[in-house]
């Protein structure tokens, strides 16, 4: 809650800074807009003045030309007054234009050309006046040529001035547009910034109003949370406490009092008062641990007992961790839990473990009996049966038949005992994992089955295996059982062939490893061309004593594949079976890569 409040304060500060920034920006843009507007007005006036001066020059020339013509027609010198005054007036205009365009080299060059043209025109005026003097010799041809020359010069001047006025008018139009733009944009910009500033201030108001509402809701939530925490402490049997290091004061939650068998806030929360409830045998150790807590401002897990006033003994566990609050105060926050039920359950678990160890010893004794005491009578039975078989000619046909059945039953019993011993060994807890050469283990398994492999002409093809961390004798037993199973259920129509392949697979990409706990596995696949089986029995064949075929047709106890399943479980791996009746079976073993 405090963190959220700090975030809100920071938010308001940010809004304040933004508002101040926009107000300053508003002032700066206002000043700039007014300056731009003033400058645009000055530029428009400047352009108008240039055009007026140019038009004035042209007007003076026209007046001079009109007066010149009037004088030629009337011979009245009054008409020469505009001509006589034109030079001075034009010079004044030129001086003003040079001042107005002093920062424009192009315009200065144009003025220079214009001045040269005007000088030529005025010189032509002077020449025609000389030709017209009646006291002199009058040459009408030269006079006519001078008039034509003057007319051309006047046209050139007029065109030059018109071009200059045209260029200035273009500039004037642009400056008018800029002026209009500034005239329109300035109030709009100022109004927009004003609205934006007001919007930010309104947003701040809404935020404050919203936060006040949230603050009220948060206070209500805190009350509910406090009550919920109290109930949670009661249900979970724990209490909270805080130690303010600087002031050396403690605060206890209500349920911490209840853990001591007292009513909430029934005594002052001090260490001396708390120690009165600690079991006498634990007081010394408890005092030492508290001393360390005050020294290191830290409390690792400690365990002690307390005694209620009614004599009930409770086991408690406490833990503390130091923090520094916003006021830079060092505080140790702690939790104390009632673990009496855990202690009771642990003792009960120890008793069950002791009983389990006793059961394991009894099972070991049974294995010893099965491997020695049970096999000894079987050996005697088979010995006496062999003696009876030697005197088979003295027995009746029924007697021979009975002896045969007894011999088969005794053989099956021996195989069953041997398989049970193998299954029992695969259940043993003393599983020593070693980095093993799997190729050697496979060869050892083939040696164990050498006789039957030779008799059935079995063809076995196997990949080269890497070193794998396994329980060596169990993996060898796995190979023996799977290869032996493939030979036992061979097809009568073809030579048994067994293919053994290896690869490393990604668990996420193999559909058989959807429950895998490791990312990568060794995948060892055994594929034969035997009689196969229906896939609906793919899980059943790994069940202890489970058989899919009649014992008269195929020998066995139904334990071999159960042993394989147990071995893969011991390695935290998986085994899968796939079958096609009449074509063969495939057994896939997955061993995890650590």
Short précis:
Helices cover 62% and strands 15% of the residues.
Major sheet:
5 strands, antiparallel
Separation of the first and last Cα atoms: 46 Å
Kindly provide the radius of gyration, computed on alpha-carbon positions and rounded to a whole number of angstroms: 58 Å
Structural classification: alpha+beta
Notable features of this structure?
594 residues, alpha+beta, Beta-Lactamase, Heat Shock Protein 90, five-stranded antiparallel beta sheet, five-stranded mixed beta sheet, 62% helix
Task: Describe this structure as you would to a colleague.
This is histidine kinase. Residues 369-594 form the Histidine kinase domain. InterPro entries: CHASE3 (IPR007891), HATPase_C_sf (IPR036890), HATPase_dom (IPR003594), His_kinase_dom (IPR005467), HisK_dim/P_dom (IPR003661), HisK_dim/P_sf (IPR036097), PAC (IPR001610), PAS (IPR000014). GO terms for molecular function: phosphorelay sensor kinase activity. It catalyses: ATP + protein L-histidine = ADP + protein N-phospho-L-histidine. With 594 residues, the chain is an alpha+beta fold. The chain has three domains: 2-205; 237-338, 2-Layer Sandwich (Beta-Lactamase); 431-592, Histidine kinase-like ATPase, C-terminal domain (Heat Shock Protein 90, 2-Layer Sandwich). Helices cover 62% and strands 15% of the residues. It is built from 14 helices and twelve strands. It has helices spanning 2-74, 81-100, 105-131, 140-236, 254-259, 271-275, 283-296, 340-373, 375-390, 397-426, 438-448, 450-455, 472-488, 560-570; strands at residues 238-244, 249-252, 299-307, 313-324, 330-338, 434-437, 459-462, 467-470, 497-506, 520-528, 574-580, 584-592. The strands form three sheets. It has a five-stranded antiparallel sheet. The chain is elongated, with a radius of gyration of 58 Å. It starts with a helix and ends with a strand. The relative contact order is 0.05. The model is unreliable at 549-556 (pLDDT under 50).
